[in-house]
Specification:
alpha+beta; five-stranded antiparallel beta sheet; 5 helices; globular
Length: about 140
């Protein structure tokens, strides 16, 4: 299965709904396919202009390393030079903090979601909620 535009839009709408339900700050959500290509992006009113790059960087890093950005964050604390080198290989676009979540269909990677705007932990909660609302499995670890 590939990640279709309708599914990406469901993920975004559901992430926004979760953010609203929890009283989060304005969110921005990027949905990428398994190759790291953008399928859809949306930002809520009040989001800053840098939020697209942050959301994309969380999702792209997760896809590139095959692990959620929370795991990348933890690895960065243990191996800062390694994660710094990887970020250099990605031209500095990786954002190694929670909020980047892999999208799985069964055991198959089909994309990644990056959410930004609130705390990193809340960003991750919104990403997971969006993915699960689309009937897919979130892998944040």
């Amino acid at each position: 299965m590939s990640l279709a535009l309708d599914t990406a839009n469901t993920i975004i709408a559901s992430a926004f709904a979760k953010g609203a339900a929890l009283g989060m700050k304005p969110l921005s959500v990027a949905v990428l396919d398994a190759g790291g290509h953008l399928i859809a992006f949306a930002r809520q009113d009040g989001s800053s202009n840098l939020r697209f790059k942050i959301a994309e960087g969380k999702a792209a890093g997760a896809i590139a390393l095959g692990m959620g950005s929370r795991a990348i964050f933890e690895r960065a604390q243990q191996q800062p030079y390694f994660v710094g080198a990887l970020n250099g290989l990605m031209d500095g676009s990786m954002v190694p903090v929670p909020g980047g979540v892999l999208v799985m269909d069964g055991g198959t990677l089909i994309g990644g979601v990056g959410v930004t705007g609130d705390t990193s932990d809340n960003d991750e909660i919104a990403a997971i909620a969006g993915i699960e609302a689309a009937g897919l499995t979130a892998n944040a670890g």
